[in-house]
Structure formats: structure tokens, C-alpha cells
Fold this protein.
Amino acid sequence: MAFAETRIRSLETARECVRLGARQRTIAWVTGLPASFIFHKVFDAQHRAPRGRPPYSEEFIFRSPLRVQAEASAFASKYRLLTTEGFVHSRALITAFKHYLSVVRSPSVSFDEAFFLVSNLDGIWAATTPSLDLGRCRRCGCTQILPRGATSQDRCPFCKVPHSDADTRTPRRHVPPEPAHASDKGDALAGLCAALEQRIRALRLERSLEALGAHPRIVATLTGVSGVPEGTASAAAHVAPVRFGRPINLLRWGVAINTLQRVQFSLLATVYRRLRAADFGPEEALRAAFVHVSSLFPSRSSLSFDRCFELVALFDARWGVSNAEFDLLGCPECHSRYLASRRDRAPPHCPFCALARRPDKYL
């Protein structure tokens, strides 16, 4: 698997761990990302990492109330089922913990404790060797957590918990009523996950643009990593977009640009505008339009992504262009829509009509 794809998947796993309340050290074990990278990239100045050491201790399994032991056993049973079905350890941990949260009204096991439990079950991450095992109760058949090498007991935590007051027993950690400012923490967590989601989307976009042959400066522009200092970035009216080679000839558009390329550019602008109308972002609309139009002309003069970026910037007044330089006109004869430069000295004419009249010349 490519390094970029591995990094993206690690960030996606980190995002899930953050949503479940994981601490920095736990995220580092599960994702394999360096702790310094997590501190600076997963968390940031607005969303600080939780303080304190993670609650890694085997005591919470066997010295905690029966209700906590039963909940931990139920989680471990679901985790083992997922790994048996072929889930990787990190995905099985996250999925099993989400299931645990969905079925337990007042959860008593934190994500860090669930992580430590899994580590000791399989001898991975924070544990060098397995120290726990799973066995079935000989009385009720439920799966329970046992010390490694121990035999199943006649009664497990599920048998011992009184059914009459199972829901009213005080959990190991009493959860007080939510204070008035508790929503701030939820808002901060949501903001952190949104920021992480934005980083993941930017990485995926960067990888796809590089695969399409985009220049690094154009990739930086589309992913928001601008090389322009912040003091000058407010003057968004650079007179031209980021480009390479000669600029598009706006004064002699209908003559200097060959007919087939004008057809391709017109299709690109049409697809781009439709995607924008469907609420696609400009970067994703450009990428998708380029891929679609390129697939229509696989054996003919292929489009350059850098040139298409420049054209869309001039067409939609984006990425450094202050005023649109192109119009998308409708042809009264073939009913196609074609691009026409606002600065063209010659009257606009439809490239689709010319292509239909002389296909042997232009194809």
C-alpha cells in the first residue's frame, strides 16, 4: 500500500479514536503515528489533547464491580467475533466499542480501558504477551474474561449480577449530571473532528491531483496550502492564476486555440458548472470534470491538468483571478454550449459545428 494511502487511513483511524475519547498515547498505539505528529496534527492549539496518564491497569477487570466486569466481557466478546471474521485489530476495537456504547445505557468502560483490554487479550500494542483470555461460563454460556490459562468458572459476572437491580447499581465511576458548560466540551470535540476531517480530505485531494499530473504549486493552491504570505493573501486579485508556460491567448481565442481543444475546454467548463450547481466544491468539481472529459478523448490530444486549472480559474474567477474572462454561450444551430473569450477580437463561433462539418480535419 502506498505511503500516502497509509497515512490517510491512519488519520481516519485517529479521527475515530478522538471521537471515542481516546488519549494521545492510545491513538499512537492504534494508528502507529508518532506521538509528536498526533500532538501537532491530530490535536491543535484550539483542541488540546486530554491531560493525564491513560488508565492502563488490569485491576479494572477483576477488582471492579460485577457490572463493569460484565460490560468489559460483553465488549471483549464482540471484539473477538470481529477479529475472527477477519477485521484488523484497530477496526475491530473501534467497531466493538461503538457497539458497546450503543447497547449500554451508562457505560463504565472508557475507550482507553477497552484498548488496554484488547492489548492484553492479543498481546499487541501496549502488551508484549497475552495475559487475558476469553472463556464460556459453564452455567449460562456467556463469554467472560479470564486470566491467561485459567479455566471457566461455574458462575460469571453475568450470573452474579442481580437482575432486579442490575440497572440501578452504582457504576464504578459515578457520572454526575451534566453541568451547564459540558456542551462546550462536546462542541470542542466536534470542532476537532471537523478539523481532522478537513485534513483527511485535503490529503486525499492532494494524492488524486498528483496522480493527474498537477504541478506541486497548483496542488498547494487547490488544497489550501498557499505559498503566498498572509499579508498579501488578502489581495486576492493576483492578475493571473498560477500557471506554467505561455498564458491562454484571450485576444485570439477562436483562432489560436485549435478546434478540438476548444471542444474539450467547452466540455470541461460545462461539466464544471453542472457540478458546481450540484453543490460540489470548486476543487472537486475541477478534478471530476477533468477526469470525465479526459476519458472521452483517450487517444486524442490529451488535456493538461495545469492548463485546465488555468482555464477554469479564468472562467470562474477563482484562485487568483479577480474577473471572469470566459462566457459559456449556446449555439443556435447545434444547441451545444461553447466557451468564448470576452477579449477575443474575432466574433465567437461554435467549435462543435466545425467539428461536425469536418471531422476528418480535426479528429
Summary: Residues 247-362 form one domain.
